[in-house]
Structures are given as structure tokens and as C-alpha cells.
Amino acid sequence: MEAHGLRIGYGQKKQWKTVAGEIDFTLLQGELAAIVGINGIGKSTLLRTLGRVQPKLDGGIFLDGLPIDGLGPLALASKISMVLTEPLASKNLAVWELLALGRQPYTNWLGTLASEDRSKIALAIELVGIGDLQYKKCYELSDGQLQKVMIARALAQDTSIILLDEPTSHLDLYHKVQILKLLGSIAHETQKTVLFTTHEIEIAIQLCDKMLVMDREECYFGQPCELILQGCFQKLFPADTIVFDPDTGSFKVKK
Amino acid sequence: MRPQKTYFIPFVLLLVVLLLCFGINVSLGSVAIPLKETVNAFLGNSAAQDSSTYIIWNYRIPKAFTAVLVGGGLSVSGLLMQTFFRNPLAGPFVLGISSGASLGAALLIMGSSLFSGLLSFNLVNDVSLAVVSSMGSFAVLLSVMVVAAKVKDSMALLIIGLMFGSITAAVVSVLSYFTDAQQLQQYIYWSFGSIGHLSWAQLAILGTIVIIGMILGIASIKSLNALLLGENYARSLGVDIKKSRFLIIIAAGLLAGGITAFAGPIAFVGLAVPHLTRQIFNTTDHKILVPAVTLYGAILLLICDTVAQLPNSASMLPLNAVTSVVGAPVVIWLLVRKRKMVF
Hints:
heterodimer; A: alpha/beta; four-stranded antiparallel beta sheet; 12 strands; B: mainly alpha; 0% strand
């Protein structure tokens, strides 16, 4: 997945409000990548734009060298799956039903599951390790369990790219690390490209192959250690409150 | 739930109950006809009296069919709206569709007195009432759809539907203030809801409307299931949101509008039946819910109508009152007992 000169934002007709741009990056198969930046910088907007849930303003997004604008909704749905921050419309969904919805791009007009669909769902359950949850209802799950289920749904959609919007919010440190490690193993074992937004910069530096740092003026993309050497993280927060320690890769509050 | 569950047994049971209720509904009425006579008349047996045959074939059977269409259609309409608006309290009344029909009916019945000097014949009859109230519900439906094209948020659409309902209610109350007692009474009778006055020809029109609405609803099953995740998720699954919104609104509007036009406003069926159905069918899959809700709604309305006609007596209860008496406690029970109204 590549993006070139991408500008994102909101607007209607001629009144565009650019949130961020220009964004350039190239992600390879099997890479785990994080988008980091302060609140309101446009991380989620970027993710939604990449998934074409929301229109881009300028520039191009490419999959395997081809622009995604040329893909129909179903073709796109078989290439990119998403895990969003918006709450489920219906918490009454059973986990298995929810996972089955991930197969929608491949099923017939009624959504009847074929044996291949069932095996993909079973595979997703196994990869994420939620076998004990599959017959529960979504309202019975904890936040961490629900997040795993949503990741499994994206896996069931069987796409080469998975985009996740803040998969670690509302979770404790253990579950945050657990989820991000899970994403890492998914990326490396299944050769999928996994891109997520997060506020856990320190954990992301340790676990990710690539990072996209969104700052007010510019966006930086590269391997975490390169970005540390370039001093990208120092500029992220005002230096009089939080400083970045390049040696340990962590942030310190300035007293 | 188990992934493979097809709910075969509940479906068969519901079908049997439906046939039973249909039979009971046909065999009971203001005129007492013995069961044997009813069966003979139904089978066209010459042993039956002509009067019984006439009552059964031209009054009771069309009425029972109307009950099936009205109950099934309103319930599906309610189910579509609950999923579409992500709101367990949504129903045919919420979009303002029923109020639109009321406005049409009120304008015809009470407005005709204002023009009675100009026209020498009586405008108000069953056909014109059905036409005008359909037009009323579609006028509201079209306005809601125009707004829906501009407003992206389903919640906003829900509130707009309620506002349309308020406006039509206001116009109706102004009209009733200026109209004379006879017309007001006629309007109030319409608003009681009745399924007993449809001829076979009218039944055919209603049937066509309901079947078209059902087909559109069935065509939306897959996108309805995706919408259970939320609109953005549905979009990421390749659902054409604009097209599905259009289809679902048209289906729900056709069902609710067409039915209200012919049978008057019938409260709570559209709201309560989907929730009752979920007590038996513990699933969110619309492939199962749509047929289940249809059967359940038909059964409920057949029972309500049987009660409303107070068997073997000359008087009748307003159907709208009976469905409210059944429906409102159900909603309260769901909220208090189950502590949640999920969809």
C-alpha cells in the first residue's frame, strides 16, 4: 500500500478544510505500522480516507501499484478491512454472527455462507484465540475481548490490508501490549499489511516495523529507530511539558 | 447461538399457530355461525346456508387476509426501521409515515366539508380515503427522503420524522377544530383502525403493495445485516450505503403507508412484534428475522382482531385500541423485565 501527496480533510463542494497533508508512505506485505500524533491531528481521518470510508482531498492511494479509486466497493472490501472506533450498532450480535458478517463481500445476495466462508471464520477464530467466546453475545464481552473479536472479523474478511483505528484505547497496559503483539504476529505470519493509529508511542516504537509520525507541519515515515535518530518524537509534544529520551525510547514528564 | 441454527421447529410452530388463528378468526364474528357451517361454507359445500357462505367469503375471509397482510407488513416495516435507525424504539409511526396518512385522511374527510358547496357529490368513500391517505404518507415519505439525502445521520432523520409527525398532528387538530361533528366522527372512526371493510379488489391492491414492500425488504436483508455493525463498517464491507438507505426507506414506507391508508393507523404492532420475535428467535440475522416477524405479526393481528370484534355480539372494539392495550404493556415489560431493548 502506498500513498503519495495525500491530503485529507473534510468539506462540502468547494469549501474544503484540509486536516493534514502532504502524506507519503509505502507499506510492504507483512509489515506492522503505526500512525502516531497528538489528538486532532488527523490520524483517524487518514485511516478512514485510506479505507475510502471518507473521500480524500488530493493525492493518490495505491494498492499493488494501482489507484484505489478504480476499485468498486466490493473489490475494495476484499482488499482492505477495517476496525473502527465507532461502537457496534447492535450489541445483540452473537460473536459468530459478527464474524460471519466479515464474509459479506464474498457471499451471495442473501449472505448465505459457503463452506469456504466457514473455514475462513474458523481460521480467524483460531488466529486470534477467541474459541471460547464464539457463542457469546457482544454485550457480554469486555472491551479487550470485543476488540479481539473485531480484529477476528477483519481477519475473516480475508484482505491483504487491515486498518485499525485506535485498537488499544480503553484497555489496560497488559491488554494493550497483548493486542499489539497479536497484530504483529498477524502481520508477520499471514503476510498482511497491518496499519493502526495509536497513542501508545512507546509500545509502538518497540513493536512496529514502520511508523508514520503526524506533526503539525509535516509527516515523517520510516522505521522507529530512524525516526528516533531524526528527532521526530521530540517535536511531537511541547518541550516544556514532555521530553523524549532517545536512549530508552520513552517520554518523560518535565517537572 | 449455534452457527448452523435454522430455527426449523419454531417456524413450523408459528405456521401452525397462524393457520389456527386464521381459522378461529374466520369462524368467530358478530353473527354466530356454527363451526360445521363455517367449514362447509369455506369448502363451498352446498350444505351451507347462502347467508353464511356470503358472510364467510365476502366479509370474514377478506378480513382475515387483511389482518395477515397488515400484521405482517407493519411488523416487517418496524423491523426494517429498528435496524436502519439503530433504535429499538423505531416503528412505522416514527418516520411520520402514519401521521402523513392521517393528514391525508383528515384533509379529505374534514376538508371536504369546506368545499361541499363547490361539489355536488360526496367525495368521501373507502377508495378515495385509501388514495388520499396513501398520498399523504408518500408526501411525508418523500420529504423525509429529500431530507435524508442531505442529512447523513440516521438519528437526525429519526428526529425529522418525529417533527413531521408533530406538524401533521397540528394540522389535523386545526382541521378538527373547524369541522362539524359528523365529519369529525368519521375521521375518528378512521383513526380507530379497521380491517373489516376491504373488498376483494381492495385486498388485491393492498396485497400488491405489501408484496412489493416485502420483496424490497428481502432484497435489503444482506445490507441490513451489515448495518448491524454501523454505517462505516457496512461501507467497509462493500455495501452501497446510498442505495441500501433508499431501498430500506422505500420498503418501510410502502409497507407502513400502504397499510395505514387501507386499515387506518394501527399502533404498536410495528414496534412490539420485532421485540416479541426476538424472545423466541435469539438471533440478529435478518434472513431469519424477516420471515419470523411476518408470521408473528400476522398471528398477533389475527388475535387482536378476533378480540376486537367481540364474538357473537353486535358491537366492535376499535382495533387500534386493542393493539395498544396488547402492545404498550409488552414494551414496558421488555424495558422493566429484560432491562434492555436490544435489536
